[in-house]
Amino acid sequence: MSDQEKTQGLSRRDFIKSSTVSAAGAAAVMASGNYAYAAATDKIRVGLIGCGGRGTGAAGDVANAAPGVEIVAMGDVFPGRVNGSRNELKKLGDKFKVTDATAYSGLDAYKRVIDTNGVNYIILATPPGFRPLHLDYAIKAGKHVFMEKPVAVDPTGVRSALASSDLANQKKLGIVAGTQRRHQNSYRETMQRIKDGAIGDVTGGQVYWNQGGLWSHQKQANESDTEWQIRNWLYFTWLSGDHIVEQHVHNIDVANWAMKGHPIRATGVGGRQTRTSPEYGHIYDHFAVELEYPNGARILSMCRQ
After folding, report:
1. Exposed/middle/buried for 303, CB within 10 Å: 0-12, 13-18, 19+?
2. Is the pLDDT of residue 30 over 90?
3. Could you say which of 45, 253, 278, 303 is the most buried, measured as most Cβ atoms within 10 Å of its Cβ?
4. Stretch 179-183: mean pLDDT, rounded?
């Protein structure tokens, strides 16, 4: 992300005035400490929940984005993840203030991070199946939140996230989710031109995310099924929602953005042709879905790993 993009955020105090940031925000929030506000102090004290590569990178980005940002607590289910992330983030110097007392592991680590004294900004970067639960706890505790996309993996989780958004609005807390296209200048400029009528009415379109495979984690002899699935979370719908939700959500969001709303019908196909061995869990490796919008426009959505 360029320095120019990093400085396009709101000021700390303007942020709180703007009440709740929409969950259609983007990962660009990680690049601007200006998106958080701490009552009675200009310090942004960050708690990281989920210490894998995405969470570690996000914590580094937010710490380097502005003065007055400190990483003060971190947690993950797995102690090894916490230790690895902690060693990596020590390069932040004085901005990294996690101690043995504020580095947590276990299934309740998220509560302990959120409850750490002085934390006012939470990064949620665990597998998305846990996200609604963590968001609910963070908002009830009065914290601003950046959460990676997707915000949930099933209807129950979505309803919970919507309820948390309503509560955040009442409490004047910010929530931003990682659909980063919304903060990418080229997309924003294009969407503004569409909104201004540069191409007339949108009557159809296509959105694609077709790529090769991603990482997988082989089950180890000493791992329970639950531990293995959490470590191998991409490949289980209760944790990822499948790659159409976990990854292709970015481009589905672009379609909805262009159409200024959501589809009223969806007709699709999908399956497993290539990733059929046990380490790939039970998700599909390809989808093709036709989305129909209220004005009759149809958009073909296709994704493959």
Report:
1. buried
2. no
3. 303
4. 92
Q: What is the mean predicted confidence (pLDDT) over 176-180?
A: 93
For residue 290, CA distances in Å to 199, 300, 303 come to 22, 5, 12
pTM for the model: 0.87
How many whole angstroms separate alpha carbon 165 and alpha carbon 276? 38
Q: Are strands 286-292 and 265-271 parallel, antiparallel or unpaired?
A: antiparallel
Helix (H, G, I), strand (E, B) or coil at 73: strand
For residues 20 and 176, give the distance between their C-alpha atoms in angstroms, rounded to a whole number.
9
CATH code of the domain occupying 3-181: 3.40.50.720
Q: Where are the beta strands (DSSP E) in 142-272?
A: 144-147, 175-177, 204-210, 265-271
| Tokens standing for residue 34 | 């200006």
Cβ 244 vs Cβ 254: under 8 Å = no
CATH code of the domain made up of 202-304 = 3.30.360.10
Domain boundaries, the chain: 3-181, 202-304
